[in-house]
Amino acid sequence: MTTTTAVAAPHATARSKASAAVLKAEFRIFRREPGALFWIMAFPTVLLVILGSIPSFRETDASLGGVRLVDAYVPVTVLLSLIMAGLQAMPPMITGYRERGILRRMSTTPVRPSAVLGAQMGIHGAAALVSALLSLTVGRLVFDVPLPRQAFGYAIALLLAILCGLALGAVVSAISRTTKAATAIGSAVFFPMMFSAGVWLPVQAMPDALARVVEIAPLGAAAQALGEAAAGDWPGLSHLGVLAVWTVVLSAAAARWFRWE
């Protein structure tokens, strides 16, 4: 027992150090990608500034319950960052590693391929979170958009939304055999997710029948949950439940279909 434990401990330490080295290396690579940095971390806030500069977006709208369009678009830009991270940035990167045999070669070293996948999901999730905080800050300082009145509920909804977006990206990575396929599939899923998140029309302003359909989609439910928390209400359990179910289902699908080589 003692000998086995003594042997296992160095292996665990070696893997931990290797995983930390992978995370550091992946972060360095991500930091050198200006396209990913812009589209994930800057573009949503830039879009918010452009929309907020339109005078009509700063006027109250009866169809939105008396709030301004710019207020309704802050949660939308928050979701846009995780769509960019999960569907546009992460799948081509992971698929490229598989396509070039990097994951296969890693399986023979102390660095497991899962360390790369975990690092990619962690980095892109953190980037989406930073972008969300940037949108909230700019919305508050530039357009006087109130910060979420139900902060804890907002944080839970945002965390579930990020996990769901990353799980969706993992599914795209799992079913894509090449980088081109990952880009094509990610783009095909990208636009429906943008619509359901309310990029073209906030979910609150959609006709009731369309809104009910959109709320079944992961980002439609996320948009509603974030909007409710921003208004000071606890996010609806149905919306959080939809997010949680989608996260579990997508994660299970990604785990089942993902291949390291």
Automatic annotation (TrEMBL):
Xref: PROSITE patterns: ABC_TM2
Superkingdom classification of source: Bacteria
Pfam families documented for this protein: ABC2_membrane
Annotated membrane topology: Multi-pass membrane protein
Family matches, as InterPro entries: ABC-2_transporter (IPR052902), ABC2_TM (IPR013525), ABC2_TM_bact-type (IPR047817), ABC_2_transport (IPR000412)
Domain ABC transmembrane type-2: 35-261
Keyword hit for Transmembrane helix: yes
Main location: membrane
Subcellular location: Cell membrane; Membrane
Keywords recorded for this protein, A-Z: Antibiotic resistance, Cell membrane, Membrane, Transmembrane, Transmembrane helix, Transport
Membrane-crossing residue ranges in chain numbering: 36-57, 72-94, 115-139, 151-175, 182-203, 237-258
Family of the protein in this entry: Belongs to the ABC-2 integral membrane protein family.
Database matches in PANTHER family: DOXORUBICIN RESISTANCE ABC TRANSPORTER PERMEASE PROTEIN DRRC-RELATED, TRANSPORT PERMEASE PROTEIN
Official protein name in the record: Transport permease protein
